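INPUT
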Amino acid sequence: MAWKKACSVNDVAVDTLRKFDVGGVGVLVANLGDEFKAYPPACPHMEEPLEQSGVCSGGLLTCTKHLWQWDMRTGEQRAPAEKPLLMYDVRLDGDDVMVNVEHELEYEYEEEDDDDFEW
Amino acid sequence: MPARNAQQWSRPPSGLKPGEYVDSRIYSDNDIFEEELQKIWKKTWIPVCHESELAKPYDFRTMTIAREPIIVVRGSDNRVRAFLNVCPHRGNMIERRPSGSFAEGTPSGNPKRMTCMFHAWQFDMKGNCVFISRQEEGYQDRLCPKDVGLRRLRCEVYFGGFVWVCLDDKVDKTVAEWAAGCLDCLQPSLDAEPLEVFHYHKAIIPCNYKLWHDTNCEFYHDYLHYHNRITGFNDAYFARKNSGFDNGHINVGSFEVQYDKYEGFESRANVSFPSLPPNHWYMIDMFPGANFNLRGSALRCDLMTPLAPDKVLIEFRGLGLKSDSPETRRARVEHHNTIWGPFGRNLHEDLLAVSGQGAAMDSRAEHRHILHGRHENETIHDENGMRHFYDEWGRWMDRSPGNPDQRYREGHNQPGVSA
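OUTPUT
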């Protein structure tokens, strides 16, 4: 296990997201009031930085670019989102928000091949 | 011989043959200009920029060829591709900035995609459409992203990293084949190691693009250049050959320039390009309007975008080696500027001459003959370079340069008396 400190509980206000550098890995920390969650920083749709485009309300995260939505506690998608949010394990150590970043979590963004392009 | 009356003026000098003069309408007539864009500029390989200007993945540059908006982008696979800069939805220009990066998102777009700001359609660096807003609601199953990719354009990175684009999908030559050997003299110097643009400026010059190309194709206008007259001439200078290559290109042969004999100049021997004999100078003029000019330590490149019969956008670039130390780079920049900078030896004088020609060539002006009839053993004061260019021009246009009302073949076979 690779538990590392991401931030202090006071660094992230309730219903907001902030991105932290955790040992070279960008991690997005969310404060749901009674719980902290941690996600990769990019939207699984089009790599938008969710720290800027994401809005948290009532336990739902919405990316304001194309309105993809997720349940922040489970990462489950809500329509029109087509992919779930990936999540890092989080625990509190006193005032420290600890995140387990054994492997960097990344979404796969498909890019079609064009090797056989026909002129 | 006294001055001439109108009838005499309308005829070319009797001793010159067709091919040794052109009709001034080829520089000023709007219909001919529009035809050139269609028949030449949309059919041939055009160098548009240098790969060092889009050094990182997701970097881009925009430009036009024959008024078509073009975008050149570097993909995550480092490959440079070119597309029409037009959204397949409602025809909006996708990217308006002259250059930049798609690595960061834009207000209506996302990182790593091109976004049309109009309705937020998105495209990846390979031209695939990757997002259509409210696709199913509006198009159901009648249209999907694969139906609306960007128009991809033929694109090659060739000759020291220059980016070449051709609007004709069916172009039957590679850039190397199109160059037909005219680049060979500089290829070892330019391909030895990566190059980098260190100088860029652009200007809209009030003249026809071919007039600028003409000045690059002959050195008879040494008489225009004060500094050339007082310091530059010697036998080796005049002995250089002007050689023609297929497809309308020419080379000016090299010789060793005695830079240390110029007042205030220094030898360029220790910073000359790789494989280039020290202080040597080569110049290549490519049809229909590109110029590569290597003076020992600094490469200059003029790329032209014709805008109107009497208007040409010229982009001037200076290049050195990417591996340059700061001292070497400073030397190259200084060497570049002392020839081609605002207080340099040549460039401003060339601009004076072509804008003077442009001022006398209004589209409604009486047409006249522009003489390209000097024969000096195909050396630099010969005008064979221009004759070679205009013969190629005639073939692409199917017009005789000496009388554009005649077809190319007719102009070749008849004595050149224009109406």
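end of record. The first strand of chain A starts at residue 3 and ends at 8.
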